[in-house]
């Protein structure tokens, strides 16, 4: 059960955020703000109290809050983003988390880790070894988890930006799976909901209490999630998609 979430307002500099999809065009800032409002409203509908942090103009990708921290039921951790332009986003995060967590750890260089690479399945955490999260970062995270009676394991990956670009745990054993993770043995025993290649962006959904937030515009994935008996709330993230950002990236939930 999540009771809280933290989000950061998008900065006007959002248009300069990192993207592997420049053909989608630059985000429209006003539209991004309206989508952010709707995202917050959707989280609130799920019963979560949302803390909204102010925009950081110096960091175009800073609204992708998920990447700078990990919040677990036992402790929180400040990451060390692998993208050099995002490293400074961690400043002040420990102070924010201190309002909620007594125990706060961090990932230290040369370790790098971004929260988008961490998927929580109960007390077990899967850590994607991506271009942003290195083996040392994953090792530090697993050690931090084990110190608190939790556990974790690394997952090899080659194609996707983050682990949760292609995987979302929807609770009750349901796992949304796309692309390179369809063949990964680690995920064979879940109740898998496969995401069609042309809808792969929709593999990034979030289960928040009684509902699943699903990006709008991906009817096959939406239908498959509903067929699994889960309640869906559609949220338009078109402007964040232009920067490879999805629903999970926009908040920390705990
Ligand atoms: C980046 O490349 O870092 C941002 N443009 C997108 C981050 C998306 N975050 C996530 O998947 N957790």
Q: What descriptors fit this protein?
A:
binds citrulline; 19% helix; L-arginine/glycine Amidinotransferase, Chain A; alpha/beta; three-stranded mixed sheet; 254 residues
Under CATH, the topology can be stated as L-arginine/glycine Amidinotransferase, Chain A
For the termini, the CA-CA separation is 8 Å
CATH architecture: 5-stranded Propeller
CATH superfamily: L-arginine/glycine Amidinotransferase, Chain A
* Percent of residues in helices: 10-25%
Number of helices: 5
| Topology, number of strands | 15
Please state roughly what percent of the residues sit in beta strands, choosing from under 5%, 5-15%, 15-25%, 25-35%, 35-45% or over 45%: 15-25%
Bound molecules: citrulline
**Numbering strands along the chain, what is their spatial order in the largest sheet?**
2-1-15
Shape verdict:
globular
Gyration radius, in Å: 17 Å
Order of helices and strands: EHEEEHEEEHEEEEEEHEHE
Number of domains: 1
Structure description:
The relative contact order is 0.18. The protein contains five helices and 15 strands. The chain has a single domain, classed as L-arginine/glycine Amidinotransferase, Chain A. Strand 12 and strand 13 form a beta hairpin. The protein is an alpha/beta fold and 254 residues long. Bound molecules: citrulline (CIR). The site of citrulline has 19 residues, from loops.
């Amino acid at each position: 059960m999540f009771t809280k979430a933290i989000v950061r307002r998008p900065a006007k500099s959002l248009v300069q955020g990192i993207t592997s999809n420049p053909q989608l065009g630059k985000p429209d800032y006003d539209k991004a703000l309206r989508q952010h409002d709707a995202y917050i409203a959707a989280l609130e509908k799920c019963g979560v109290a949302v803390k909204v942090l102010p925009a950081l103009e110096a960091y175009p990708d800073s609204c992708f809050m998920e990447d700078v921290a990990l919040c677990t039921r036992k402790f929180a951790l400040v990451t060390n983003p692998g993208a050099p332009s995002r490293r400074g986003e961690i400043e002040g995060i420990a102070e924010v988390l201190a309002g909620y967590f007594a125990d706060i750890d961090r990932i230290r260089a040369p370790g790098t880790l971004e929260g988008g690479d961490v998927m929580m399945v109960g007390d077990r955490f899967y850590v994607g070894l991506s271009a942003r999260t290195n083996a040392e970062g994953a090792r530090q995270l697993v050690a931090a988890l084990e110190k608190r009676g939790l556990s974790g394991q690394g997952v090899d990956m080659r194609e996707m930006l983050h682990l949760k670009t292609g995987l979302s745990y929807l609770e009750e054993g349901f796992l949304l799976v796309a692309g390179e993770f369809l063949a990964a043995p680690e995920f064979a025993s879940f109740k898998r909901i496969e995401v069609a290649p042309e809808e792969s962006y929709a593999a990034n959904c979030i289960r928040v209490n009684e509902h699943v937030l699903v990006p709008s515009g991906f009817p096959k994935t939406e239908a498959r999630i509903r067929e699994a008996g889960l309640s869906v709330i559609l949220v338009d993230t078109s402007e964040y998609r232009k920067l490879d950002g999805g629903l999970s990236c926009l908040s920390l939930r705990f």
